[in-house]
Task: structure prediction
Amino acid sequence: MSKCTHKVVLLCGLYLAGALQAGGMGFLDLIVPEFRTEKATVPEACEELAKAGALITLETLPSEKVVRFSLHLRNQTIRAILDAVVKADQRYEWREHSSLAWPYAKIRVINILPAGAVSDKTNLMNVQIGHADLDNVNVEDVFKSPLDFLPELRQTYVRKVRFRGVAISEIMPLTPPTQLSRVCVKLHDVTVRDVLNELAIKSGGIGWKYDGLEHRWNVFR
Result:
């Protein structure tokens, strides 16, 4: 069987963040001259939006079924493009997440996730974290292996996932720490998703990805 190919083309001129704030315009209101997808999936389309400068995080479905679609949009906002993408595969939805910490409250990240994921009690991203105290952590390290930084998540993972065939030893090991993108986050009574979103915002533009089928995390660019 031939491998299905996809093509995503995004042509847009993006303004500097400072200019956006000065003009009172948010990233979602930016006009994209042309956005075209051919036989693309939701994750593939979102990768192109991330390359354009959108701070996007992605949670994929716990399903092997692949839905591909083609779009050709002209002079549409980022918001309209996101709406079109999730309309093409209605198993997904998108949400804006605002920072939970001052002075970042006006900074937002775009979450692309399975429809209904936020209320799904079985979703590991909804595990409650009583106290997240991450001091001078490397953001990419946390995104690749949040189990090593969030004890509640690790406990739930071991109970719900490990004994279904995924061993702790199979989790991607931490990479050697670097001095890039090191931040501090202190949050109380939040979800795993909240913690990772906060890290994404404070990192200055690094997104995260959660594979809902394999139960693995990674950096999303």
